[in-house]
Design a protein that fits this description.
mainly beta; 1 helix; 10 strands; elongated; two-stranded antiparallel sheet; 8-stranded antiparallel barrel; Porin
Amino acid sequence: MAAPRPSLSVAAALVALLTGGTASAQVHWDASAKAGVTDRFETGGDAGAASPRPGPSLELQGHVALLPMIRVGAYLAADLSPAVGRGAAADGPRAFAQTGAHLRVSPPFVPWPWRTWLFAGVGYGYARDLATGLGGGMLDVPVGLGLGRKLTRPWMLFTELGARFGAVGKDAFALSFSVGLSLEE
């Protein structure tokens, strides 16, 4: 009888790593809500224009599993960027709404009951100045990383650190920190 091939052993170890070990730990779908703070950064505009400040943000997400550690889904987000005027220019706060497709990759870097993930998405964002009523759309590209701890089945408490990139507009870059609760099965 021939000895097992090393390539088959490596492939089996890789499959075990990617699937996270046991089938009972796999997530088939999730739905989550999170709240936090988002800081918008100006990437253009007048020198005397209002300066954005960190403001509140909310987001809803849902995913289904493609593979044990890869999930796809959708997001719906909103944030408010208060502004402080300089000189005579006193723009109002800006409201942002975003929606789109979302990808989450959850490699098993930390032991159970902890979980880590990387995320990325692409969608549509809309910004509106609440004082002037002026607004417009932009491409929305959220990216980031998350850390969660399983509380009880099916609940997980998590935190995410993220960034948003927009294709147009003077507030085309944002950083966020949020805390949320996820229902997973």
